Amino acid sequence: MSFVGTLALTGLGSLIYKYDTNQIFEKHPNVELSIKEYYSKVYKKEAKQLSERYISSLVNFFPGVLDGYSLAYPFRGCHELLKNLPEYSMISLWMLTGYLLMFSLTGFAYWATITPMYIALFGILGPPGILIVILHSFIHINMLTMMYMRMAHYNNKLVMKYLNVHGVPKSFTKIPVKYYIPFFSTYYWLYEFPSKLIKYTCGTIVLLVLMTFSTIPLFGPLFFNIVISPVITRIYVSKYLRLRGVNNIQRYEHLYENFGSYTAFGLSCAIIESIPIVSGFALCSNTLAAVMWGIKREELN
Prior knowledge:
Elements: H1 2-18, E1 24-27, H2 38-66, H3 69-83, H4 85-113, H5 115-122, H6 127-152, H7 156-165, E2 177-180, H8 186-213, H9 220-227, H10 229-243, H11 248-257, H12 259-272, H13 278-300
Parallel strand pairs: 1-2
């Protein structure tokens, strides 16, 4: 029940954020294409982009991971949170309360349904086995809780608070464009629906495999967080990119253009967020880190 509930709430949070009203909704340019143009301007173009994304990810992966620059920012976010704690205290307290509430709800379901199975397996080891079960349950519940908390986007106000604390002018923020595809359009049925079906089917399979690995006592949840580290970064950074008026198509490309950096940033986040309770504070500090990281990258570019 805790697995299913977490996945359902995570998906709901993603949908709410995806169709947030603080965007300008425009039709995707490809909606206006004629069927004759689909081969050259849709299928061929998308195949080329897919290949370019793959190559770009490989090329920038190791330089981005090994430069140490992106890896350090989540820890700088911790410093920022502690340095200006009075300014961030109310929002952080609200987020921590939300984390503790979800941790408790997830924990009740977990301990009622999954923990008994672990006890049956590890109880034969005696007290050490029970200790492993208790420690793993807290770590695993924390992992499931953070899956939802990241996608719930309770930390949006913290992004604006950072800008206010550091005197960033209002002109810095822009309204992003959200390109949508009408359900009854030709483009939806000839490309969007089939591609999304393949994407979400593969994504579901990968997620289920990773969720299975996460059940490995003690090390499974950390392994799960490390593997999804680029996704963790994408969730945090999306708030900043939206704030800068970057549309949904450009945000998607941004991941592949900076895959190594996304992995490094997310790796630090994953390690910090693997610690129960500390994760509630990390949700705040990593949000601040993503804004700081985004601003610095703009300055360097």
